[in-house]
Amino acid sequence: MKLRNVLFITIILIVGCLSNDLMAQDALKAMIKKCESLDNVEMSVVRKKNKETLKVEQSITTITINVSNKALIDEFIAACEKDEPSAYEVIYSKKKGKVIPQFFRFKNVNFSFSYNNNNFNFTLDNGKYKTKKEETLNITMIEN
């Protein structure tokens, strides 16, 4: 009877630990999904597959957000704060007086955040291209 209870508790703890790893970055992944549907966000996805099995081995998603979209950036920062307890490596930095995430590492997913003020936006105006320098936030998610 005692052995059965010990085994039962052990199984529950193992399942709990595994499910915690799977649910670790839910808020950040939800923000990535939200960005897929937004028109004012640039996004690229690169998937590396195994040649024999054609199973995805690695997926790299990069999102570029204009810094003027402060509401979306604040949502990402809130998602980072929510998922931070589950990350086993976290790096924050201070940019323009605001503490922002720079890197989060989970069991099989990494998120990196970088500001870029050298992006140029090209627009066509009366048959001529005009360039405008923009500051952006680049968010990269690497899934293994």
Summarize this entry quickly:
The protein has 144 residues and is α+β, with helices and mostly antiparallel strands.
Describe this structure in words.
The structure is a single chain. It is built from 3 helices and 6 strands. It has helices at residues 2-22, 26-36, 70-83; strands spanning 42-49, 56-66, 89-95, 98-105, 109-125, 128-143. Strands 1-2-6-5-4-3 form a 6-stranded antiparallel sheet. Strand 1 and strand 2 (56-66) form a beta hairpin.
How large a portion of the residues is in β-strands, by DSSP E?
over 45%
**What general form does the structure show?**
globular
Number of helical segments with 4 or more residues: 3
Low-confidence stretches: 17-22
Tell me the helix content: 25-40%
Biggest sheet record: 6 strands, antiparallel
Instruction: Quote the average pLDDT.
Output: 78
For the record, the count of structural domains works out to 1
What's the order of the H and E elements?
Answer: HHEEHEEEE
Reading side by side through the largest sheet, how are the strands ordered? Answer: 1-2-6-5-4-3
Distance between the termini: 42 Å
